[in-house]
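Before surveying the methods themselves, let us examine one representative protein, written as a sequence plus integers encoding its fold.
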Amino acid sequence: MTYVEGFVCPVPDANRDAYRDHAAAAWKLFQEFGVRRHVEAWGTDVPDGTVTDFRKSVAAEDGENVVFAWFEYPDRATRDQANAKMMSDPRMGELIDMPFDGKRMIMGGFQSILDTGGRRGGFVDGFVLPVPEGNRDAYLALAQKAAAIFAKHGALRLVEAFSDDVPRGKVTDFHRAVRSEEGEGVVFSWIEWPDLATRDAAWAKMRADDEMKDEPMSFDGKRMFWGGFEMILDEQSEAHAEPERELA
């Protein structure tokens, strides 16, 4: 199943175009190194949370927005090889002048446990949450049931990926972002929608839907955070493009 390198980073509002251009230039190298898909999504509906949220996760400052991004690989070995190339290729030096504070970016490797659907959308709901290692199967069962409901309301793809190589950072990191406890992993997840209107209509219907109402939670929902993001870059290697699949 898909191996994901997930990122969350703070970007000044004024640098949106510069950030997008920087990412587009980097894709040319990333594709060569083995990245199959590269997505950058700009926060448009990112709520403040009481305990955790996307802005807190990267210590976002006034005038900054949050980007939710990921690379897709066929497996961890390909991802590890790509990271090694990124560290050693001198052409990467031309991309060092980043239009954001890289010290506050959080990143890590995640192994997908659910990847259903295959159609690419224009709007993304992103989620980050702590899940006890012992509850992985229970979480997957819950996610599979939710995926069927999201599909009914127009979602195109749902991915749930469990932490596999998620380092601790000096300033920010995924574990700190969800206040993970001993024995907990971190889930990096997203839902792709055709557009914002479809997503908003779907959530309105689901809030009135009782199908998930009494489902037991296999994680601490108070430490989960989520938000809506507009895709500003979606590049996919044509050599590794897969047929589009309906979300089931």
